[in-house]
């Protein structure tokens, strides 16, 4: 058994190690070391907790057993999961943090003596407020992440689910949470505590169902943030520095990511949360226009010819590449091009894919060196000097309408200036509009060649034709 | 008058938000996915609360209701800790520079 002061010092150390873990991610070179700092911080926190409780009763054996069971499941998932499934994995993990926060709060409520919070029915006021906030945010994180997981996994339709009066219902439930916390503090009644948790679960579900598939980068970041605030709430209850520091770090991390994602779509955070974007398919006149405009389409042979004669090619990957699992075929194609002394780089839009950095991970998996992969602002000027842009699975993020038509729903969104390339190869299954429901003007440009096919199959065919 | 310890914890909390703010802005965008998985792993330090709850059961009654919630929370958090750190490690291993520099 170690003193409370000593354990507090160790919790502080583990908090600092967590900060260093995030700091490491400022560059890929230092990131692996950062991850070890994170692991070290976690090990310290767990060992100190064991030592500070100090009673080595029969319970300890079970704690270790459960720890090992959970760890084995986690390790199994971590090694088996394909990189394309990373968004749903992260959503799933968020739900676990949320649920763990709820359970710890429940345990503290049922047995406050164990945490030095007072006695049953007579819990310290501050602790009660902190644990109910932790429980409520945790519950919202849990059910919200479950919905996000189901949507990303395709079990639930990715299209927004809306009903009339939705925002009103959410508002009422949101107010109800605060009212319940108030009365919980007054009466310490079990029923109110359980009602609070149930309503919070409901809010989580209602909050995420109206949000569509391509807004998922914001949703995942937001849930990431919530899981942090939930952890911080519990950290205050348990008076644990490591948990408070971590909660604050994770909370602000998720908030910043949400901000970056919203900015990359030129949408306000509020409008994403209110949801329903892309639900109403675009007005009829854009569809009519589409039928009239001519489109040039080509095959793998044409594409291979164009690229062979180019001196520089920029690849623009998007969510479609992830769906088709085309990243390896793409890398093969790029290797062939490089053999012909063609300069190849990759351009990534911040919201390409279903979570922040999604495309970067997939390209890294396909052994693409990270110094060939560029962010929007670093590469956007290069399109004008390049011969071929190869758009694979991206759509809205290349649409020039965002720069020209103030009426378009995506107007003002930063886009990749693909159309400035001498020629654009656009791999897509059909002419259907992207997530935003906006027709892509790029399809009808003179310098665009549409390649109608599955992204992976088309890329493989191009590889064959490059020989 | 003595300062309530809550104020100290609140100070730590707010300063940590600022640290988080500056540290996360310096994270390179290409590592945003590992950032999410590692924040996931570290937020599972909530396991310390779960362990305290689980160990609170008496010798005769290891599985009281409150310690049961602790035990389940241990499993959930452990999945996250191992899964989160390992999958982050797996991702970070994949980020490589151009081979040319080695040769």
How would you characterize the overall build of this protein?
The complex is a heterodimer of chains A (467) and B (103). In chain A, helix 1 (4-24) packs parallel to helix 9 and helix 12 (300-308) crosses helix 18 (455-465). Helices cover 61% and strands 7% of the residues of chain A. Chain A is elongated, with a radius of gyration of 25 Å. Chain A is an alpha/beta fold and 467 residues long. In chain A, strands 5-4-3-6-7-8 form a 6-stranded parallel beta sheet. Chain A has a two-stranded antiparallel sheet with strand order 1-2. Chain B is an all-alpha fold and 103 residues long. Chain B is flat. The mean pLDDT of chain B is 88. At the A-B interface, helix 1, helix 2, helix 3, helix 4 and helix 8 of A face helix 1, helix 2, helix 3 and helix 4 of B.
Strand order in space, largest sheet of chain A = 5-4-3-6-7-8
Estimate what percentage of residues of chain A fall within beta strands: 5-15%
Rg calculated over all Cα atoms of chain A: 25 Å
What is the N-to-C succession of helices and strands of chain A?
HHHHEEHHHHHHHHEHHEHEHEHEEH
Number of strands of chain B: 0
Query: For the residues shown, what is the average pLDDT of chain A?
Result: 87
Order of helices and strands of chain B: HHHH
The structure class of chain B reads mainly alpha
Coarse shape of chain A: elongated
In angstroms, what separates the terminal alpha carbons of chain A?
Answer: 70 Å
Low-confidence stretches of chain B: none
- Structural class, from secondary structure content of chain A? alpha/beta
In brief, what are we looking at here?
The complex is a heterodimer of chains A (467) and B (103). Chain A is α/β, with parallel strands linked by helices.
């Amino acid at each position: 058994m170690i003193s409370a002061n000593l354990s507090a010092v160790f919790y502080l150390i583990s908090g600092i190690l967590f900060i260093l873990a995030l700091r490491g991610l400022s560059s890929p070179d230092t990131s692996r070391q950062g991850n070890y700092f994170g692991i070290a911080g976690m090990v310290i926190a767990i060992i100190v907790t064991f030592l500070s409780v100090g009673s080595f009763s029969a319970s300890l054996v079970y704690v270790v057993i459960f720890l090992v069971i959970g760890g084995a499941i986690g390790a199994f998932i971590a090694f088996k999961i394909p990189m394309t499934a990373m968004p749903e994995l992260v959503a799933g993990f968020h739900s676990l943090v949320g649920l763990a926060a709820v359970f710890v709060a429940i345990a503290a409520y049922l047995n406050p003596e164990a945490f030095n919070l007072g006695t049953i029915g007579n819990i310290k006021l501050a602790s009660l407020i902190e644990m109910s906030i932790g429980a409520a945010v945790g519950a919202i994180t849990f059910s919200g992440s479950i919905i996000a997981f189901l949507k990303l996994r395709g079990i639930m339709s990715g299209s927004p689910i809306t009903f009339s009066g939705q925002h009103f219902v959410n508002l009422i439930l949101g107010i109800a949470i605060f009212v319940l916390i108030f009365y919980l503090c007054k009466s310490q009644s079990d029923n109110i505590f359980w009602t609070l948790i149930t309503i919070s679960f409901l809010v989580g579900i209602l909050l995420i169902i109206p949000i569509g598939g391509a807004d998922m980068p914001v949703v995942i970041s937001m849930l990431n943030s919530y899981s942090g605030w939930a952890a911080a709430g519990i950290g205050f209850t348990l008076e644990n520095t490591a948990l408070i520091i971590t909660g604050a770090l994770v909370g602000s991390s998720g908030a910043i990511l949400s901000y970056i994602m919203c900015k990359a779509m030129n949408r306000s955070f509020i409008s994403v949360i209110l949801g329903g974007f892309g639900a109403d398919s675009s007005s009829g006149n854009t569809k009519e226009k589409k039928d009239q405009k001519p489109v040039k389409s080509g095959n793998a042979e044409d594409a291979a010819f164009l690229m062979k004669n180019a001196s520089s090619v920029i690849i623009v990957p998007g969510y479609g590449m992830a769906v088709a699992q085309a990243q390896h075929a793409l890398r093969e194609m790029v290797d062939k091009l490089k053999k012909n002394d063609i300069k190849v780089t990759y351009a990534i839009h911040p919201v390409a894919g279903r979570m922040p950095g999604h495309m970067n991970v997939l390209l890294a998996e396909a052994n693409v060196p990270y110094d060939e992969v560029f962010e929007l602002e670093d590469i956007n000027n290069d399109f004008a000097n390049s011969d071929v842009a190869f758009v694979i699975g991206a759509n809205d993020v290349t649409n020039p309408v965002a720069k020209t038509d103030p009426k378009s729903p995506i107007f003002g969104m930063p886009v990749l200036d693909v159309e400035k390339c001498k020629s654009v190869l656009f791999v897509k299954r059909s002419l259907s509009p992207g997530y935003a429901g906006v027709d892509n003007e790029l399809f009808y440009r003179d310098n665009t060649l549409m390649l109608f096919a599955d992204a992976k199959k088309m890329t493989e065919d191009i590889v064959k034709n490059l020989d | 008058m003595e300062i309530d310890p809550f104020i100290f914890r609140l100070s730590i909390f707010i300063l940590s938000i600022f640290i988080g703010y500056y540290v996360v802005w310096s994270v390179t965008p290409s590592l945003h996915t590992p950032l999410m998985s590692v924040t996931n792993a570290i937020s599972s330090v909530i396991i310390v609360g779960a362990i305290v709850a689980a160990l609170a059961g008496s010798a005769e009654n290891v599985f009281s209701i409150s310690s049961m919630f602790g035990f389940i929370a241990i499993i959930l958090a452990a999945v996250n800790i191992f899964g989160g750190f390992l999958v982050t490690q797996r991702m970070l291993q994949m980020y490589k520079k151009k081979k040319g520099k080695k040769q």
